[in-house]
Amino acid sequence: MKMNHAVLCRALLLMSAGLATATAALAQHYEVPAVLKASELAPAALLKGPFHTVDENVTLAGAQPNFTIRSPYGIWEARGQEMLAIRVSELPAFEQLAKVSKSDEFMKSAKTAAAAPVKAVGQFVESPLETTGNVLSGIGLIASRVGRVAEKSATRVGDTVAGNTPAQKEILKPAATPLGTAAPRTLIGDPLGYNQQRREWAQRLKVDPYTFNGALSDKLGEVASVTFASSFPVNLVLGSVIAPLYYAQQFNEQATLEAYQTPALDIWTRNEARLKKLGIEGLSARNFLRNNYFTPTLQTALVLALESLGNVAGRDQVIVFAARAASETEARYVNNSVMLLAQHDRTVAPLAMIRGADNVIAGETRDGKLVVAAPLDYLPWVQPLHDFARRTDLKGAERWLLVSGQVTPLAQQELAALAWRVSDKLASAR
After folding, report:
1. Are 355 and 334 in contact (CB under 8 A)?
2. Burial, 42: exposed, middle or buried (Cβ in 10 Å; 0-12, 13-18, 19+)?
3. Closest-CA residue to 420 (of 430, 403, 405, 28)
4. Nearest alpha carbon to residue 378 among 338, 351, 356, 411
5. Cα(60)–Cα(80) distance, rounded to whole angstroms?
């Protein structure tokens, strides 16, 4: 992908559209980064391993390096170091699943599973609100869960009829889906226990059961189907799974644990109750909970991060903002923005409020300082950043930009000239 600074404005959500452009005199001072080197942007352990290599040449997708991962199991594009780490950490799972699928006992169990009604189960798992009527008859289900699925379906229909669903014009405009990723899947109902098997396999493999890695998601589905429909045990063959590389922002271990141990619908209900305690309920809460880009893991992580802020005003605005995420990249951008602000609240200065502010998430300290989160890996001085820095709606006694990665010296200089202070390389400070 060729460098396009307009994409920076859209895909990374940092700069708002329609602001005044820089003058021709200023334009000559903008940085036009050449192709960057992966070895200068990410740890060596992420760039080469027993199951992969990463292309050395890296273009920018906005302010995020666009890494290309090559392995025997597929080719993936990863936007930013976090996604690079996540995809690399998933590769040992492919190796383990390949060994499992070749075992005699698995092949024997697969023949047994072939005669089971796994297809119908898969249909229910993929789109439970559309197929519930075909599955319920003749199957005894846990009444409370069935009721919750039906209730949520009815509520969704009611919101749609009333025109209360999120506007088609997104605050966060959708970015193109990176190579090797999949659209989010609806994994709510689990009447037959298929998803439990999927979660158990994911936990053994130390991967997210709701991964956007399409190839891995399909492999998890295959082994879960065989396990569900036969006597094949989850713990067979695996032994000690290779520990993944955790350079990714593992911001909430509790969210990961809940994703493994709790059905998705129960996670929904739990997070709905958590939001209610924060004073967030009704349509804004429902729109957020229904956004499938916030998988149960990402959804829980964001809710817990908002909880960690304590008595901070404006968390409802963040939920409205998050509900409009239109990609995994955007969902993680929201989560990481809140995590940067929570880190600032915890270690630097307590926040009095937090809000979504036209493609950025900002906070205000108790003494009136503005802090804007920018969970970006590489930030050069480019026109969209200049436009952002001149925004009149971002005011405070002091103005701070919190950047997870590195800011170029020129960008530091120009931001300072516009009365912005920069705190960068915050990801390494976690």
Report:
1. no
2. buried
3. 403
4. 411
5. 9
266-302 pLDDT, tens digit each: 999 999 999 999 999 999 999 999 999 999 999 999 9
Do 232 and 105 form a contact (C-beta atoms < 8 A)? yes
CA–CA dist 136, 360 (Å, integer): 44
The pLDDT confidence band at residue 100, using thresholds 50, 70 and 90, is confident
User: Between helices 143-161 and 264-277, what is the axis angle to 10°?
Assistant: 60
The token duo for 148 is 């919750």
CB 357 within 8 A of CB 394: yes
Which amino acid makes up residue 277?
K
Round to whole Å and give the CA distance between 286 and 154. 12
Query: Mind spelling out the 3-state secondary structure of the chain?
Result: CCCCHHHHHHHCCCCCCCCCCCCHHHHCCCCCCCCEEHHHCCCHHHHEECCEEECCEEEEECCEEEEEEEECCEEEEEEHHHHHHHHHHHHHHHHHHHHHHHCHHHHHHHHHHHCCCHHHHHHHHHCHHHHHHHHCCCCCCCHHHHHHHHHHHHHHHHHHHCCCCCCCCCCCCCCCCCCCECCCCCCCCCCCCHHHHHHHHHHHHCCCCCCCEHHHHHHHHHHHHHHHHCCCCCCCCCCCCCCCCCCCCCCCHHHHHHHHHCCHHHHHHHHHHHHHHCCCCCHHHHHHHCCCCCCHHHHHHHHHHHHHCCCCECHHHHHHHHCCCCCHHHHHHHHHHHHHHHHHHHHCCCEEEEEECCCCEEEEECCCCEEEEECCCEECCCHHHHHHHCCCCCCCCCEEEEECCEECHHHHHHHHHCCCEEECCCHHHC
**Residues ≥6 apart with Cβ < 8 Å to 308:** 342, 346
pLDDT tens-place string over residues 117-166: 544 444 334 433 333 333 233 233 333 333 444 455 445 444 544 455 55
Backbone angles phi, psi at 339, to 5 degrees: -65, -40
